[in-house]
């Protein structure tokens, strides 16, 4: 893997160190997450964040373990870091960091105070909501290490305050049980029980959300570090509180072994591939229903569109064929009226995308092709044909095949956004894209061609599919080329969505990246056009991937910043989306254009924001600072897939 580490100049600079985040996951949707500085900048940061019935229904438990060193003379140095609603940052332990690094994907901090050097390592138990934090004396001593256990128990999206109920604590061997939900255990436990008022989260303030909360100082652990090699460790876990985990040092060692095995199984071509393979592992989780994909940390759960878009990169490019097969089967079971269940993040299963089922067709085809898994293709073929039949008959939200040309059109009520550009502000879609979106129909043509291959493999008559495919491809080639020199983003959009003097329909020629799928998919409807691709590159490309709208277009938003309405308003109006690097690279390869220089910025980004991973979005204007989730599944998957397809 690439060497990811920072010295005193980055660690001691609060802006630089607090702007770089690390993530460790438990394979169930739970995680530990924070910053290089040790400063919590988000309400979502914590050492034990527990997944519930779904990966998105998370609770924050153990918030932090604040270290303090005490010498025999009585002198004390605090190594933690907190920002308060007053604006003060106290303590400032990051100023004593001489090194932060990821070792086999696990974070390690190294503080130096004179001749005393102390390291902290952290890991989670895979498949269990459990975190282990190990402190080791590297040099100097003796010193006493105290660890203040800072806790809460609340929804990850919210806050908890001192004017509410006091957290319920019960004594347990070596520590305490908090709210009956999680247990903390370590040496020489001393209960305290005190509110810390006005803890400030600067990233929540920047997002226009409530930035402050109160935290419960539950108590402290303590242990002597007499000589180099001595350790003081703490465990925290949820679920079966009576079942104690292995010793913390064993949890760390086991996590390191597993991470090495994940990388080795992916057969990486180089250090960047290895880093991305491990990053991909964070998103693949196992729930009660089987394997699934977390779309992004820290706030997303499972979204079928994201899962199917990321499928090839997460599963096939990392040789996780068995898990992938199981996942595709389980998602097939959610099909209803030709639509794939999108997400349960809102508390109920939703069918509200025009493209998730089409990405599913693509994912199954890629699995069968790359894994040589004809049996799965034959097994899922009836379900896949059902998708086509439902679209021919018409399904929810006015999604249907237009009998006039064989292309997919979508309508629905005015408060619904069905494509991946699905942001809404005050219930109104920013980019409704009603009509026939270009990428939806590229996926439709691609899916029909893939289905022809699957049917023929299974020995079935594919004549009806061949005719559907030919008709849709012919119509696509006739309808989408625009006089501007690229493809229309939407054709046959009804006038209410694009009010132009009462015209019945409108073809939208704003320069957007959705058209890349028309050249990039395995059975893409268009042949690569070098001049057209060069126009797209000139208008959309940034070091972190394509913009969602060209800067010279009306409505362009160059910064993805501000409160929820401002951010959502610019989400697909110029914001950069790294996942689009995959289609961009594929289109360039098909046109026999060089691609290696397209990946340089994203490879450098691996140490800039969510370290070892790729962000959800970035600003459309230079310097293209990362925004959104620091760790995003389809961003990682598409960069990995694009690199491994070379």
From TrEMBL:
Which Gene3D superfamilies does this one have?
Answer: 1.50.10.10
SUPFAM superfamilies (UniProt xref): Six-hairpin glycosidases
Name of the molecule in the record: Glycogen debranching enzyme, putative
Organism name: Micromonospora siamensis
Query: What are its GO biological-process terms?
Result: glycogen catabolic process
UniProt-listed InterPro entries: 6-hairpin_glycosidase_sf (IPR008928), 6hp_glycosidase-like_sf (IPR012341), AGL/Gdb1 (IPR010401), GDE_C (IPR032790), Glycogen_debranch_N (IPR024742)
Q: Give every Glycogen debranching enzyme bacterial and archaeal type N-terminal domain span.
A: 20-226
Quote one Gene Ontology molecular function term: amylo-alpha-1,6-glucosidase activity
Ranges of residues in domain Glycogen debranching enzyme C-terminal = 279-641
